[in-house]
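sry for the spam today, last one i promise. struct tokens for design, 332 residues
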């Protein structure tokens, strides 16, 4: 049993309270390799932004949960070396699928876990979330629950259709489970292909697909029901079209990749939404940089020469998100 406090990590409680009060959102970036982690920590340290490092089920399978935990511990020390005196770093389990998964992460030093029972019947979601909360709170680990279903595919989490969160359920759910934050469904979606072309409209000037707007009326109703309670948005990559263009220019085949427009996320950040999950954008930034090196320098075979530019491109993306979208800079 390792407590996250011994690793220099923090939970989300204080961080979310400040974010809700301050009208900004904390970035939750997924990681599963060293270059991603370096880029996240460099970006957070440089901008003095609190940050949530997320580990998904896919990441645990790919990189090993134990290794990722030690990488996060190293990240705290690395942040200090970069001149960030008191790093505000959360290590969070993304989409915990069972009590045992959450317990295993809590026991190993995670400071926050998500238990995703959103696919279960309501009462079973309540019971499972409550069980995780009771265990997590023994160690001051914070818990994110979820109500409503997001469409799209992300590391084994997939659903064909989205179902918006029902505002009439949120008070009952939060009261019964004791969860510390709530992921909701208001039209965001997992992955880099969030909407079909049929769901979008066409911008006549750019020829690009414009996705349907988020359901801000549902968000407003949830905020009315749960004043000041921390709300989480999953599936909130914007799928930067310049990265998609770079990928396609250098041999890729990403057709009609479309995300959530940044101005919508900017608007959400100012509300009770205090955690915004971004994964696909980092994958795109990494892939674009690697493809460009491979296309322009076909003789290159030193991984540092293509993963280095990938890291630089991810760092640029993370800083952009922090400063221009979420507004979490200079908050830690
Ligand atoms: Zn998610």
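last one done:
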């Amino acid at each position: 049993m390792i407590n996250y406090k011994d690793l220099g990590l923090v939970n989300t409680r204080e961080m979310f309270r400040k974010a809700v009060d301050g009208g900004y959102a904390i970035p939750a970036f997924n990681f599963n390799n060293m270059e991603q982690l370096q880029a996240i920590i460099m970006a957070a340290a440089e901008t003095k932004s609190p940050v949530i490092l997320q580990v998904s089920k896919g990441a645990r399978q790919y990189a090993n949960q134990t290794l990722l935990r030690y990488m996060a511990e190293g990240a705290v020390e690395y942040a200090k070396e970069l001149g960030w005196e008191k790093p505000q770093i959360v290590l969070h389990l993304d989409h915990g699928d069972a009590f045992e998964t959450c317990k295993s992460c809590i026991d190993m030093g995670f400071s926050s876990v998500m238990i995703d029972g959103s696919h279960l019947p309501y009462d079973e979601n309540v019971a499972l979330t409550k069980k995780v909360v009771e265990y997590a709170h023994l160690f001051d680990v914070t818990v994110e629950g979820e109500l409503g279903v997001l469409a799209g595919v992300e590391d084994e989490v997939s659903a064909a259709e989205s179902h918006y969160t029902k505002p009439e359920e949120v008070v009952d759910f939060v009261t019964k489970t004791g969860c510390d934050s709530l992921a909701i469904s208001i039209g965001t979606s997992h992955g880099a292909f969030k909407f079909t072309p049929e769901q979008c409209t066409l911008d006549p000037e750019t020829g690009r697909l414009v996705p349907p707007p988020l359901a801000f009326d549902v968000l407003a109703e949830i905020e009315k029901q749960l004043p000041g309670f921390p709300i989480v948005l999953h599936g909130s990559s914007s799928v930067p079209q310049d990265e998609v263009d770079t990928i396609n220019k250098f041999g890729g085949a990403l057709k009609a990749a479309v995300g959530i427009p940044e101005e919508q996320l900017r608007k959400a950040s100012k509300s009770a939404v205090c955690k915004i999950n971004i994964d696909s954008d980092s994958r795109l930034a990494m892939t674009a940089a690697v493809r460009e090196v491979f296309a322009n320098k076909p003789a290159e075979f030193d991984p540092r020469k293509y993963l280095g530019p990938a890291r630089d491109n991810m760092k640029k993306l993370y800083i952009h998100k922090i400063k221009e979208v979420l507004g979490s800079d200079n908050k830690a």
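The longest helix spans residues 303-326. ok im logging off now
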